[in-house]
Amino acid sequence: MLKFIKTLTRRQKRNVLLLIDLMLVPLAMIAAFGTQADPLTPVETLSLLFPILPYMILIAAGLAIWLRIPQIQLNAYEARAVARSGAFAVHMSFALAALSWLFGLAVPPGILAIFGAAFLLFSYASRMLLLWAVTAIYKREIPRRRVLIYGAGTTGTQLAAALRSHEGIDPVAFVDDNTALQGVQIAGLPVFTPARIAQIAEEKQISRVLLAIPSLSQPKQAQMARRLQAMGLEVQSLPSFAQLIGEEPLVEKLTPVKPAHFLGRTQAVTSLGEDCASYAGRVVLISGGGGSIGSELARQVLACRPAKLLLYELGELALYNIEMELHQQAEDGGSDLVPVLGSVTDPRQVRQVLTEHGVQVVIHAAAYKHVPLVEANPLSGLTNNVLGTQTLARESAETGVERFILVSSDKAVRPISVMGASKRLAELVVQDLAARASGTVFTMVRFGNVLGSSGSVVPLFQDQVSRGGPVTVTHPDVMRYFMTVREAVHLVLRAGAMASGGEVFVLDMGKEVAIMDLARQVIESAGYTVRDAANPDGDIEIEISGLRPGEKLREELTLSGERLVTDHPKIFCAREAHLSEIEVASALRGLREAIAAGSQDAARAVVDRWIETGRDNTPDLEQGGG
């Protein structure tokens, strides 16, 4: 039967409804005349009215088409549709009166009124009966999804009413936190306490819960959804009416606050000015050109109009994206943009690229930088960060590169992580070459965390907030230095331009920022409140997850603590001791042997032997909490 209904065209369905209305005309006549004091039989009534019956049917057909009665869908038969049917019935009563007068039939006015009322009643009843029959057929032949509505307020009851005529969804019950509603029936459905959701879902075979509580904050809805999903239930959330009509923006359309908002100070970014001369008209290579730092380096170097800019990148997608972004800027500035897909650990490719393009300036930003990942994969981290730096720096010296700038990290100072140790070893390699190279200026720039870079804390916090929390902080006392990627890159380029060789430049990062305070700022900037002991009804909780392997409570920017001023107020110079040529060669040899043998212990032994670590001052990781 369902298959037959679905094969009917829209015109055929309208014709069925029109035919039903026409059949109701004689039926209403019989009902009207049957109310007389001396009622006639149905046959006698039809015999009496037979002369005008064909005309009544023709008039009914014309009126139905004019009033568009057959176009009204069964599931849309509500107040306006009933009013239109009422107008149809009134017109039919006048038609009966006119035809009775023309044909000389004595029809009392009361019969005319009863005819109209009967016709309207039969019209309404026929559609309700037809809707019930079609719905029953759909329910029997189409699988129904049984749902539980969370929230028995106005939104929930309206949702339940709307779902009653849905062909695939069957509302079964409500749950609501309001104890006054629990145990009663609303819109024909029982209301239960949320504590019984698992039991109700099992007993009534419910697979989906609809959250009909748009007044609840988005984080709390997300937390509720996770609890329900843990029970094996599918969860969907209903937006508020204000959101649906556009008076209130949907949560998904909210734009996260830019990371620079959390810096708490003015960015140290001005024009490069005369320092642009170090890059203008030159052939510049940026390793790691597709990363957060590398891509911003490319943007700012292009603004200086280099003759050629080479983007050296291991990740194909990252390289593709930055090339597509910068293609037009390079073309407008008259610079050649050259994407190079490869690894800085490949000496053959590095030498070929440097020689073929006549590279004059190398800015080395390629590195594995995520502390936990490098801690879990120490050999890969050391290979890329140390041996890759050594390969690129050595080949730069041998091919006559004029200037080599290493982008370093504050994690290189007394490191306790493999990532930090790898960056410190990379610094030692560059310092050694700076002491021995005659034609190439080697320098390095050291700074702390970059707000908004890939994997950094602010985007992580914002993502956690969007999912309803909790926001995870590793330790309540952890502190970090921060600057924006634009600010960091600007100062790297200025430091590289002023270098004379061997300097360890340190950027002024401002004051340390407490990560707990930063987490609160991210939550509050999104319009939510922090849930803690002082505010148990807040939206999002800050959870202490514990320090991860390789993480420190606080970072340092120099080994000695002394910083020499330079011509730029935000750039300082740290004169630090470094290893001799023999010591660096020995460290690199030991590292290569450990990597070739696949021995993490041997690699860590090399690190411990040749660099000053901060493990002796590391707090107990367990104090960070669960």
Describe, in plain words, how this protein is organized in 3D.
The chain has 626 residues and is an alpha/beta fold. The protein has 21 helices and 22 strands. The strands form five sheets. A nine-stranded mixed beta sheet has the order 9-8-7-10-11-12-17-22-21, with helices on both faces. The chain has a six-stranded mixed beta sheet with strand order 3-4-2-1-5-6, sandwiched between helices. The two termini are 60 Å apart. Residues 244-255 and 617-626 have low confidence and may be disordered.
Quick tags:
626 residues; alpha/beta; 9-stranded mixed beta sheet
Topology:
Layout: H1 2-7, H2 10-33, H3 42-49, H4 53-66, H5 79-102, H6 109-141, E1 145-150, H7 154-163, E2 169-175, E3 185-186, E4 189-192, H8 197-203, E5 208-211, H9 218-230, E6 234-237, H10 241-244, E7 283-287, H11 292-303, E8 308-313, H12 316-332, E9 336-341, H13 347-357, E10 361-364, H14 371-376, H15 378-398, E11 403-409, H16 418-436, E12 441-447, E13 449-451, H17 457-466, E14 471-473, E15 479-480, E16 482-484, H18 485-498, E17 504-507, E18 513-514, H19 515-525, E19 530-531, E20 540-544, E21 564-565, E22 571-574, H20 581-597, H21 600-610
Helix pairs in contact: 2-3, 2-4, 2-6, 4-5, 5-6, 11-12, 11-18, 13-15, 15-16, 15-20, 17-19, 20-21
What's the β-strand tally? 22
> Mean pLDDT, rounded to whole units?
83
- DSSP summary: helix tally: 21
Structural class by secondary-structure content: alpha/beta
Q: Radius of gyration over alpha carbons?
A: 39 Å
Strand order of the largest sheet: 9-8-7-10-11-12-17-22-21
- Morphology call: elongated
Which parts are unreliable, with pLDDT below 50 for 5 consecutive residues or more? 244-255, 617-626
Kindly estimate the percentage of residues that lie in beta strands according to DSSP.
Answer: 5-15%
Question: Major beta sheet, specifics?
Answer: 9 strands, mixed
Helical proportion?
A: 40-55%
- Give the N-terminus to C-terminus distance in angstroms: 60 Å
